[in-house]
Amino acid sequence: MKILFPTDFSSAAENAFVYALKLADRLEASITVVHVYEMLQLHTWVEDSMNMDQVNDQITIGEFEQFRVKIEMLKRIAAEHRLDHVEVNYSLKESDYVVEAILDEAKASGADIIVIGTRGASGLKEILFGSVASKVIDGARCPVCMVPDTAHYRGIEKIGLTLEYKPGELELIEKSLAIARRLGGHLHCLHVDVYDPDKEKVKLMEYRHAFAHEADISFHVHPDLDVEKGILEFMRFNQIDIVIMGVQHKSKLKEFFSYSIARRIAYHTDIPLIGLHVDH
Q1: What gap in Å lies between CA 279 and CA 261, rounded to an integer?
Q2: In this structure, are residues 220 and 254 in contact, taking their beta carbons and an 8 Å threshold?
Q3: Cα 263 from chain centre
Q4: Which residues are within 8 A (CB) of 78 and not within 5 positions of it... i.e. 6 or more apart?
Q5: Which terminal CB of the chain, N or C, has fewer other CB atoms within 10 Å?
Q6: d(CA 143, CA 137)
Q7: Distance, CA of 110 to CA of 35 (rounded, Å)
Q8: Residue % of the chain over a pLDDT of 70
Q9: What integer is the mean pLDDT of 203-212?
């Protein structure tokens, strides 16, 4: 199994690297660390007064030297957590398109999951600018684990899965259960709603019947008018270690994920989130 770990060497990325190491150890996976840097872009009149080739050569040399220093830092983190036995490879890339470079690396390396750090954001800044992490999860074909900078690894035993009780969710449940089993955890499936109790009962019975013989999965309904608040309350009360949410690669992906409850939760909780792509 292969894990891709994009990093900008921020404190958020360092924190996420611990999760990547822990996951690699649990999954018997290797890690590819990738850092993407951009060349200097200037207006034409500025370029005429400078030798841009020399400037960019200096940037490349500087990035390479910084990369060497940061590699040693990552090795120290692995040693401090007694995970220096995990295989880690390193990749330095130059690109004007950071997200696309990360996605290309994921495809080229055959990544099974991407682990990436996130910093909290809110309000207009979150909506207008987004982040590298949210754009990666939009475009990736494999699961993406977003690790908040406030997360503290305490093991992965309780895994949450949010459900909307829509058609086609059995595929999402089955994929999530497979991930939970690889991690040796229990899958807690959650639906938050108060508007349609009859629908809830029917779906709850359907799902419980479909997985009646599986001991490592359970289904919960949490009544709350505010879905985001209900999900956060459930995760905190039940000490969920990581939560999975379904993401679709459809024409209205932005409406479905980037501006959705899933994205707000990813930025406003200290619990890591795995975006899992399904085709409904």
Answers
A1: 19
A2: no
A3: 11
A4: 21, 84, 86, 88
A5: C
A6: 8
A7: 17
A8: 76
A9: 88
| CA R_g for the chain | 21
Count other Cβ atoms within 10 Å, centred on residue 144.
26
User: Would you state the structure tokens that stand for residue 232, as one six-digit string?
Assistant: 């956060």
Given this model, what pLDDT does residue 95 score? Answer: 79
Higher per-residue pLDDT: 140 or 280: 140
Cα separation, 135 vs 130, in Å, equals 7
| DSSP-H helix ranges across the chain | 11-27, 44-47, 52-80, 98-109, 123-129, 132-139, 169-183, 197-210, 227-237, 253, 261-267
Q: Could you tell me if 142 and 266 are in contact, meaning their C-beta atoms sit under 8 angstroms apart?
A: no
What's the rounded Cα separation, in Å, for the pair 133 and 4? 13
Helix (H, G, I), strand (E, B) or coil at 110: coil
* Tokens, residue 21: 């190491």
Q: What is the DSSP string of 131-186?
A: -HHHHHHHH-SS-EEEEETT-------EEEEE----TTHHHHHHHHHHHHHHHT-E
Say if residue 10's pLDDT is above 50.
yes
Q: Of 102, 98, 90, whose CA–CA distance to 32 is shortest?
A: 90
Residue found by looking up tokens 């910084």 in the block: 66
CB 105 within 8 A of CB 82: no
pLDDT band at 77 (very low <50, low <70, confident <90, very high): very high
Structure tokens, 193? 């709603």
Answer positive or negative: Cα dihedral of 258, 264, 267, 272: negative
Q: pTM score, two decimals?
A: 0.81
Do 255 and 277 contact (CB within 8 A), yes or no? Answer: no
- Mean of pLDDT over the chain: 80
Residue 138 CA to residue 147 CA, distance in Å, equals 16
CA distance 128 to 112: 30
Tokens of 40: 């200097």
